[in-house]
C-alpha cells in the first residue's frame, strides 16, 4: 500500500515516463546529503548565533524540516542551496503533530530543544511502510542524561529534572547502532554537564558530518565515526559556516544505474570511503571502478550475481538495497539479498517480478535468478528508495514504463530525472490533466505482502 500521502492527487497526477533500454554517459554532479542536511538543520537549534549551511539539497524533506524550524520561530534565509539560519528568537518548544507526522527526522529536534531550553514536546514519529521505526533508544538515552519523559496522547513530553536545567553527562550503551538515536544523544550531550560516552554508536558519515559542524560551533566531540563517541558538554555553542557532505546514497544510485545499463559515467563530488561497501560489491559483480580524488568513474560490464547483506556503516547501506536488487534482476546467475536493518523494506520485489524478474522472497531474504530482460509497465513506488529501484528497472526494461509515487522520490533525490536526462536517458515527468481513478491507480500498488503501516 502506498505510504499514505496527504496529497493523493499529487501522487496520481504525476509520473515519470521512461523509454527503456537506455544507456548513461557523461559526468553527473552529486547533491548534498539529505540525511546529513536534515540533522544539521535540527542542530541549529542548539545556538543563538547564525549558522550558514551550504550545499543543502532542494528536497521536500528539507522543505518540511525548514517549516518545522520556522514554526518554532527560527529565521531562515534561502540563497539557493545555501541557508542562513538564525535561531535566537525561538518562541515555542513544541513541534506540531501535522508537521512531525510527515517527517520522521523531525524527531531529532527533541535532543537539541531539550538540551538548549530544558524542555521539549515532540509528537511520536510513528512507523512508515519500511517498518515500525521505534524511538526507544532515543528515549532511554535522554532519560540516562537526566531527562524526565512522559508520553501522553502520542506526544513525547521531555524536561530536565535538574533545577539548573542542565542534562548530566553519563555512559550510554545503545542496544543497536541507531543513526537517529546516536544523533539525538550527541546533540543532547553537547550542552550537558560533564562527559558522555555513547557505546555501540552508529558510525554513518552523516553522524561524522554532524560532529564536525558541532565542533565548529564549539562542541567537544571526539571519535565520531567510531563505535564509542565521547562528548564533553560545554556551556554554549556558537555559529559557524558548514558545507553538507555529498549524498552517498544518491551517488550509489547513479553507480548502480550505470552498472545496470553497462554504461560508463563519472560522479562527483563524492567522498570515496563513504561508498566503499557499494563500489566493492559493484566490482565483485563485474563493473570496473576508478577513483580519482573526489570523483568515481564506473565502466559497467556484464553483471554477474553477487550476495548482499545490508548492515550499519561501513557495511552495505540499507538505502541502496532496493536499487541493487533491481540491478541483480538481470545479472548472470543467482544472487541473494538480505535486508537486516528494516523489517519491511522489500516492497519493490513483487513489482520487479511483475516486470518479469525471477525473485523468490522469504521474509527479508530475496533469492534472485537473473533473467535476460524485464518488461516495462506502469508501477507505483511505495517508499523513497523503492521508487529509485523502479526507475532503474524502467531504464533496464524492454518497452516503456510509467513510474508513479513521485511524492516519495522527490523526498530524497534532487532533480533526479533531469540528471538522468543529462546522462542520456529518455525520461520525462508527465503531469496528467486527469488523475487516475482509484481502480486504475490500484494496479501494482496494492499487495497483501505489504503490511499497512501509517505514514511516517
Ligand atoms: C536513518 O533512519 C536514515 N534516515 C534512514 O534513511 C536510514 O535507512 C537509516 O538511518 C539506517 O541507516 C535519516 O537519517 C533521516 P535507525 P533512522 O534508527 O535513524 C531500530 C532514507 O531512505 N531502532 O538507524 O530512523 C529501527 O527499528 C532513510 O533516506 C530501534 O530499535 O534509522 C531499525 O530497525 C530511510 N530503536 C534500526 O534500528 C530506536 O530507538 C535502524 O534504525 C531507533 C531505531
CATH architectural group of the largest domain: Alpha-beta prism
Strand content: 15-25%
Number of helices: 16
Shape category: elongated
Small ligands present? ligand EPZ
- Rg to the nearest angstrom? 22 Å
CATH topology assignment of the largest domain:
UDP-n-acetylglucosamine1-carboxyvinyl-transferase, Chain
Helicity level, as a percent range? Answer: 25-40%
Rounded mean pLDDT is 91
- Indicate the CATH class of the largest domain: Alpha Beta
What would CATH call the homologous superfamily of the largest domain? Enolpyruvate transferase domain
Total of domains: 2
Distance between the termini: 14 Å
As laid out across the biggest beta sheet, the strand order is: 21-22-1-23
Amino acid at each position: 500500500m502506498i505510504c499514505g500521502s496527504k496529497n493523493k492527487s499529487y501522487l496520481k497526477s504525476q509520473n515519470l515516463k521512461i523509454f527503456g533500454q537506455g544507456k548513461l554517459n557523461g559526468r553527473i554532479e552529486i547533491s548534498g546529503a539529505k540525511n546529513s542536511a536534515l540533522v544539521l538543520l535540527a542542530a541549529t537549534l542548539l545556538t543563538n548565533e547564525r549558522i550558514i549551511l551550504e550545499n543543502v539539497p532542494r528536497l521536500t524533506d528539507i522543505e518540511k524540516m525548514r517549516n518545522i524550524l520556522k514554526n518554532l520561530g527560527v529565521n531562515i534565509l534561502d540563497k539557493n542551496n545555501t541557508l542562513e539560519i538564525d535561531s535566537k528568537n525561538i518562541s515555542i518548544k513544541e513541534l506540531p503533530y501535522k508537521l512531525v507526522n510527515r517527517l520522521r527526522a523531525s524527531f531529532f529536534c527533541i535532543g537539541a530543544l531539550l538540551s538548549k531550553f530544558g524542555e521539549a514536546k515532540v509528537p511520536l514519529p510513528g512507523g512508515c511502510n519500511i517498518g515500525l521505526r521505534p524511538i526507544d533508544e532515543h528515549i532511554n538515552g535522554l532519560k540516562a542524561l537526566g531527562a524526565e519523559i512522559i508520553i501522553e496522547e502520542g506526544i513525547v513530553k521531555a524536561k530536565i529534572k535538574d533545577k539548573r536545567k542542565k542534562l548530566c553527562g553519563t555512559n550510554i550503551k545503545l542496544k543497536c547502532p541507531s543513526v537517529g538515536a546516536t544523533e539525538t544523544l550527541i546533540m543532547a550531550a553537547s550542552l550537558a554537564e560533564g562527559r558522555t560516552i555513547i557505546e555501540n554508536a552508529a558510525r554513518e558519515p552523516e553522524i561524522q558530518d554532524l560532529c564536525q559542524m558541532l565542533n565548529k560551533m564549539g562542541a567537544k566531540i571526539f571519535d565520531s565515526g567510531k563505535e564509542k563517541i565521547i562528548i564533553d558538554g560545554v556551556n554554549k555553542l556558537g555559529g559557524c559556516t558548514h558545507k553538507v557532505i555529498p549524498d552517498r546514497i544518491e551517488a550509489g544510485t547513479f553507480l548502480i544505474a550505470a552498472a545496470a545499463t553497462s554504461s560508463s559515467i563519472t560522479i562527483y563530488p563524492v567522498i570515496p570511503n563513504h561508498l566503499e561497501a557499494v563500489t566493492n560489491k559493484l566490482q565483485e559483480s563485474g563493473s570496473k571502478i576508478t577513483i580519482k580524488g573526489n570523483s568515481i568513474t564506473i565502466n559497467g560490464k556484464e553483471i554477474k550475481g553477487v550476495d548482499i547483506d545490508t548492515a550499519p556503516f561501513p557495511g552495505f547501506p540499507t538505502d541502496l538495497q532496493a536499487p541493487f536488487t533491481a540491478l541483480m534482476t538481470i545479472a548472470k546467475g543467482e544472487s541473494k539479498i538480505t535486508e537486516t536493518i528494516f523489517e519491511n523494506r522489500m516492497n519493490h520485489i513483487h513489482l520487479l517480478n511483475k516486470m518479469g524478474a525471477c525473485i523468490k522472497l522469504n521474509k527479508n531474504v530475496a533469492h534472485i535468478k537473473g533473467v535476460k530482460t524485464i518488461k516495462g509497465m506502469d508501477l507505483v513506488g511505495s517508499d523513497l528508495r523503492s521508487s529509485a529501484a523502479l526507475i532503474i528497472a524502467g531504464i533496464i526494461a524492454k518497452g516503456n514504463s510509467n513510474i508513479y509515487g513521485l511524492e516519495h522520490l522527490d523526498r530524497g533525490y534532487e532533480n533526479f530525472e533531469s540528471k538522468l536526462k543529462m546522462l542520456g536517458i529518455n525520461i520525462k515527468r508527465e503531469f496528467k490533466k486527469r488523475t487516475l481513478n482509484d481502480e486504475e491507480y490500484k494496479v501494482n500498488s496494492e499487495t497483501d505482502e505489504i503490511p499497512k503501516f501509517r505514514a511516517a
